[in-house]
Amino acid sequence: MVLCGGVFLSTSGILIRVMDHADGWQIIFFRSLTFFFTVLGLLYYQYGRKTLAAYRAIGKQGVAAAVLLGLGSACYIFAMLHTTVANVVFIIGSAPLVTALLGWIFLKEKISFSGLMAMLLAFFGIGLMFVDGLVSGGLFGNILAVFMVITFGFYLLILRNNRTVDMVPATGLSGVVTLCIAAVMVSSFDISTRDLIICIGLGSFQFGLGFIFLTIGSRYIPAAEVALFALSESILNPIWVWIGVNEVPGPYTLWGSAVVLVSVTMYSLMAIYRERQIQ
Hints:
Blueprint: H1 2-9, H2 12-17, H3 24-47, H4 51-57, H5 59-82, H6 85-92, H7 95-106, H8 113-136, H9 139-160, H10 168-185, H11 193-217, H12 223-245, H13 251-278
C-alpha cells in the first residue's frame, strides 16, 4: 500500500507541468476540493453513518495533523512552481530523517550514531540542491520545500503517536485547511477545462489515493519501512517530468538527490534491521 501510495504521489510533477494557465492558488483550491470529497467518499464507504464519529475520534492531535499537512501541501504546489521537481521531491524525501531529528528535539528520543551520520549526509545533499537553486533561480522553491518537510515531519510524528486511531479523517481534513486558505487568496476561479480536469486528477488520483494509501499503510508496518517504500515518489517523479516535458535537473541537484537517496535508504535499512533484531 505504501509503495502504491508513492507511485500515485509521484505523478504530481508531470500533472502540474502540463497545465495551461492555472496559477498556484487555483491549483490548490480545486485540488483541495477534490481531495476532500475523495477522502470523504472513502470514509463514508467505510463508516457509513458513523463517518462523523470517525472525524471526532481524531481529537485535537488529529486537527493539528490536518493543519500541518494542509500548510505543507500548499507549500508543495508553490515549490513545484518555483524550482525543479527533483529538488522538491528529494528535499521532501529527507522527511524520515527530519522526523527523527524532531523526535529527538521535542520527544527526547535517542538517535543512533548511524542515524546521525545519515542526517548529516542528507543535509549535505540538500545543501547541494540549494547551491543549484542559487545558480538556477529556484531558491524560493527550495525554501518552500524545506518548510514542507518540517510540517510533514511533525505530521508524521502525530501519526506515529496515534497508531491506534484512524487518521484518514485528519488527512482528508487537511483539504479543508488548504481550501479555506486558497479561497481567500485566489484571484479568479475561472480556469480552462483542461486545467480543471488536471486539478481533479491531482486531488483524487495523485494526492487523494496517494495519501490514503500512505496513511493506512503506516499503521501496519514500521516507520522505517514506510520511509523506504515511499521513496518511490522521489525516484519516479523526476523521471516522469524528464520523459514528459524534458525537465533535466542541474548537476548540483543530481548529486544532491543521489546523496539524499543513499542516506535515507541506508537509514531506513538500518532501522529495519534494528527492528527485526528486537523482535
